[in-house]
Design brief:
The protein is an alpha/beta fold. The chain has one domain: Vaccinia Virus protein VP39 (Rossmann fold, 3-Layer(aba) Sandwich). It contains eight helices and eight strands; from the N terminus they run ααβαβαββαβααβαββ. Strands 1, 2, 3, 4, 5, 6, 7 and 8 form an eight-stranded mixed beta sheet that branches. Strand 7 and strand 8 form a beta hairpin. The protein starts with 42 loop residues before the first helix and ends in a 7-residue tail after the last strand.
Length: 271
């Protein structure tokens, strides 16, 4: 049984500063383009990212604080919590608000210079919570050293790596976790059953329309993401995680074709 600790309050809705200025609405794909080009996490995306991800990913407003809740349960004293592909740091800030163990460090890593610059601005402005400290690092996460980690988070990040890079990253994460450590992996998934894939895609399409996106916006963003985001199936995720040393993979959330799961190095550490 895991040692009990004093619980910090976790709110279901992220603080506005968790994910940037919510006043900027995503209109990037509103006008018709002859070629949308490949999706890039540049300053234009940064300026609308909170609105974009909340209106594009079903359950995102739940996934972020619940990641903090999971980190609170599995974070260990004098270890490091990693947020790989951190974007504007919503997960890092949720973990900082939730975890109250001594000696904790949080490292937030993203390859986008624009994302990290904005995250550092948000952290400087946030006077509410200063501990544990969040260290924001601009770096390709495939080059990040994972050491003494009790929690590692990949929040809709792995899908943007080249497929041949995914095993190596997950293997380094598994090797860098302390006994009892976990990986929280959230991803868009594809389904091996063609009918199921069609159903989930249609429902997600309808979800985005209810969030105010037009057919044109949905189509153009899909085209922009086609070459840069390559989702895997749940079966692929399970097989890959187990091949690098995770014994148990437990999904805890699904919203259409978006899933979040917890991977354990040792099954005995799950409860």
């Amino acid at each position: 049984m895991r040692q009990k600790s004093r619980h910090a309050k976790i709110t279901m809705n992220a603080h506005p500063k968790d994910t940037g200025d919510m006043s900027h609405k995503d209109t990037l794909f509103q006008c018709e383009m002859s070629d949308p080009g490949d999706f890039v996490f540049d300053d234009r995306v940064v300026s609308v990212f909170p609105d974009m991800i909340n209106r594009s990913v079903p359950g995102y407003g739940l996934i972020v604080p619940m990641t903090g809740m999971l980190a609170r349960r599995y974070a260990q004293e004098n270890t490091v919590l990693y947020d790989l592909g951190c974007s504007l740091g919503a997960v890092s800030i949720a973990m900082r608000a939730a975890v109250r163990r001594p000696g904790i460090k949080i490292v937030a890593v993203d390859s986008s210079a624009d994302m990290i610059r904005r995250l550092k601005e948000l952290l400087e402005d946030d006077a509410a919570l200063k501990t544990p400290e969040i260290r924001a690092v601009q770096q390709d996460i495939t080059q990040t050293s994972i050491e003494n980690a009790s929690v590692v988070v990949l929040n809709f990040t792995l899908q943007f790596l080249q497929p041949d890079q995914r095993n190596a990253l997950l293997s380094r994460i598994a090797s860098g976790l302390v006994p009892g450590g976990i990986l929280i992996l959230s991803e868009k998934v594809r389904f091996q059953d063609e009918v199921e894939q069609a159903l989930q895609t249609t429902w997600h399409h309808d979800f985005k329309k209810t969030q105010g996106y037009s057919e044109l916006e949905i189509a153009q963003k899909r085209d922009a993401l086609e070459n840069v985001m390559k989702p895997d199936s749940m079966e692929q995720h399970r097989d890959r995680l187990k091949s690098v040393g995770f014994e148990r993979v437990s999904p805890w959330f699904q919203g259409f074709n978006f899933v979040s799961m917890v991977a354990f190095r040792n099954s005995s550490d799950a409860v």
